[in-house]
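Example complex used in Figure S2.
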Amino acid sequence: MASIIQEQDIRPPEPISVLAPDGSLRPGAHVEESPELLLTMYRWMTFGRIFDTRLLNLQRQGRLVTYAPVSGQEAAQIGSSLALQHEDWLFGTYRDGLACVAHGLPPEHVILLFRGHPKAGAVPPGVNVFGQQIGIAEQIPHAVGAAWGMKLRKAQTAALTLFGDGATSEGAFHEGINFAGVLKAPVVLVCQNNGWAISVPRSAQTASETLAQKAVAYGITGRLVDGNDVLAMYREVGSALERARTGQGPTLIEAITYRYGPHSASDDPLRYRSNAELTEWQDTRDPLLRLRAYIERQNMWDENRQIALEEELRAEVAGVVTAALTEPIPAPESMFEQVYETPSPQLVQQQQELRAYLKATEKGVTFP
Amino acid sequence: MTQRNVIEAINDALTLAMSADERVLVLGEDVGRNGGVFRATDGLIERFGEERVVDTPLAEAGIVGTSIGLAAYGMRPVAEIQFLGFSLQSFAQLLGQAARIRSRSQGRFTCPLVLRAPFGGGVRAFELHSDSLEAHFVHTPGLKVVAPATPYDAKGMLLASIEDPDPVIFLEPLRRYRAGRAEVPDGHYTVPLGKAAIIRAGSDVTIVAWSAMIAPALEAAETLADEGIQAEVIDLRTLAPFDADTIIHSVEKTGRAVVVHEAPKTAGVGAEIVATINERALYSLEAPVARVTGYDVVTPVILEDYALPSPGRIVQAVRATLNT
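Predicted assembly (692 residues):
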């Protein structure tokens, strides 16, 4: 197979994009996606923005132990996630709840994750989401391994893993992508380069001009994509998944995007980046406004529909929040149950000790 | 003397060490411009510059691995890992390399690095942000493991760790970072590694604890005092090498002991302490030595109040020991 790595695909100045930031079509670009799909994308991104705002507020109220906001990255996540087929597997992180939900994870699980509730990890059967990884880059080799298994089993599926720019510094990224190349595993690695790993800028993370170009050294396809252009993301991830499914090997996609909020609820972005940088992204490169401008121009959208959608999604999110917050705190004894398939004698004894202690003290714990 | 909390005491120690010795440098994720996620390195980059306060790439194995090279070459790296759980990604470098540089080279090369990391739960942090992994390090020949509980010890032991010729894992009590201020001398002083402190004298039972477990141990001791039970509380402070003599002398006096730690019970540091008591003071014992520990589980955050050793569980264990 001839190399499909194109130098112009992975080097600046211009990431691949379909829509310009003002929602106009790039010269020579066409939109062949159906109106239904465009509206589905827009609905999901709007859900993401509303869900995110609500969860950050919940954290501020003390109802979540922490929270990692997604606002600004909706196109990168939704473009990636909607490109998946139902049988494909998704390996994302604590910040990728939106992508996970769009691939079938009930949104309550995202809230429960940030409540420290063990049910968060109990992904329902039939949903091909491998949880939300907390350790940086740790899920990348997992995705490669699952894809390797798909190849061994001759499954017509692929694995997708999401991670951030900081993750590309971790050994797990390099080991994972190298395995992917060597094994020609049907995996797509999507790096959401949001510019900042907590306080450390992309420029301090690697001396490489782009992250996409790292694909070259590992012998796989690399693509540099405008991560705030949901159509570009959908097409590039979709093509990469199709290449993966048809035995043409893995792809690394660098999605250029931006995180509007803090890394997590406990940091103050103004300590390390300027407010002007944030507002520049919000005002001129917002992923929702970009697609909205396009669909409005196509007479598929207007202010009334916008108001109705926001109202509908706010109600939906309110229902999800209520369901998650009323999820009962599990019985303390349950913490011993999923350590092994069969609890060890030590665990059984410790469980009995805790039961006896709780009975003796009538100790109860409340959680905000 | 200035009133400082643990995080301020650590910041003060780093400032003093960097001022006194230009070989000392601080490196880690977000330690520079952001001043550390817990502000331990706040202000250092302004004072000492980007060459000595380094925002590294996001790579724990890289942070530890390059610290080994820096240390072997003659620098004095003080590396920060944001949460001890993230050190898991650097275990090959810590356990397989840093710990063995001296013995592998028969003393030709040494590894005087310090790895600082907050550890333990109790602040509602989620997975990989609340682990107590000290046993892994204590079980690794060549590493020193330090776990102070107070602002005074944090400063004095961090300075001692930076001056120590061997690699030191410096474990900071996350939950106690801002738990209160205490008198901390302004200038340079050290608290020797390997020496425990008897922080409460008593004759009936010995309670051994460290780091964030000191507070519940002292609270338990107060409760027990109301019942007429005088507990002697030992802050172990250094876990490797640990001060067996102080424990043994206390147990020879009290005849009873309870060891408290937050880490899982099985093969925890408590097991080593109990075994040492059995080896050296068995005939002084009036009762089996008890352990109050975390359980052998990955605790869901929402249930962590049930899993962390509490004053109530310590009191119960002491009573059981006395009633044997």
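Residues 6-20 of chain B form the longest helix (15 residues). Chain B touches chain A through 43 residues (CB under 8 Å).
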